[in-house]
Amino acid sequence: METQIKFTKALLAYSRVTHCGEKTARGYQFDDVEVWADFDGYTCYMQSGGVTLTLLFHGKFLLEYDSRDKLKRFIRLLDKLAH
To answer: φ and ψ at 26, to 5 degrees?
Structure first.
């Protein structure tokens, strides 16, 4: 399942949230997705519906989720945001 996430698609979704979303105390919120970055911007985070995607340096990422259904919904949301 995790291989269905493309790093470039995740970056496009992240960018859309930052450009179209509302500013929050931690980052930006758009379409049920919250995004934020660490202090230097090398690590970015996306969170929605019980799933957290951490985008790391050099095109690597980490996923935290507690059910495959939540992950499937998150992947569909990423696809929607990236287009």
So the answer is: -100, -30
Residue 83 DSSP one-character state? -
- Is the predicted pLDDT of residue 3 greater than 60, yes or no? no
Taking alpha carbons only, the member of 19, 83, 17, 23 closest to residue 55 is 17
Q: Give per-residue pLDDT as tens, 6-51.
A: 999 999 999 999 999 999 999 999 989 999 999 888 999 999 999 9
The model's pTM: 0.90
Neighbours of 69 (CB within 10 A): 11
The residue ranges of DSSP E strands in the chain, in sequence order, are 22-23, 28-30, 33-37, 44-48, 51-55, 61-64
Rounded to 5 degrees, φ, ψ at 18 are -70, -30
- CB atoms inside a 10 Å sphere around CB 38: 10
Contact at 8 Å (CB) between 18 and 35? yes
